[in-house]
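Lab notebook: predicted structure, single chain.

Context: the supervisor wants predicted structures on file for every construct in the current expression panel, including those that have not yet been purified. This is the next one on the list. No modifications to the sequence; it matches the entry in the shared construct table.
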Amino acid sequence: MNASLAFQPRPASPLPWPMPRAVLFDLDGTLIDSVPDITLSVNELLASEQLPALEEAQVRRMVGHGIRMLVRKAYSAQGIALDVASLDSRTDAMLEIYPRHLTGRTTLMPGVPEMAAHFVGGGARLALVTNKPQSAAHTILDHFGLADSFSVVIGDADHQLARKPAPDMLLAALARLGVAPADAIMVGDSTVDISAAQAAQVRSVVVRCGYAAGSLDAADAVVADPGAIPALFAA
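Prediction complete. Output recorded below exactly as produced.
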């Protein structure tokens, strides 16, 4: 077995698994390392109020729950607790800043293009389910030449859908793809993705190269990076 793989499969489904009909992907920490650009954005926001910059390592621990939560955590790190109105205004400011810092320092995680090609070539349809702004997700996929691989992109533009770890985004993506949860997998990097997959009754695969702070043991499979994912599936 590849040493880069550490599996926790469900007993009823030993590896290798059959090719799924749909693969749902998280974005930040899974397909891309976006923390350098997110850090630039956060620090531009803080600098507008003459607040000290945060280190990239600090921001890395803040991502994954959407822009609003990121802003809350950034100010909390400065010892500032924002009320609702203050959080609203700073979130709006961040939403103006962030589109200027989407791809300048962001990079793909290892093996992403090859992995996407593997699934598409095997007949699977791909969807992106991210707590990131949807317009930003489209820009990033376009920049890295991945847009044509994804049939569905769901971000936080649809406020009728609760963000992950709720299952709403995953279930909406599957509905648009016309695929049942049992025929899909969710690929992410955190406990947020695992919880969303479990709630949607979708098998989960997580990558260790992302931003997870907690245990990943509840996932169905854990791999080092996206490039190792094809080895989970029968040829």
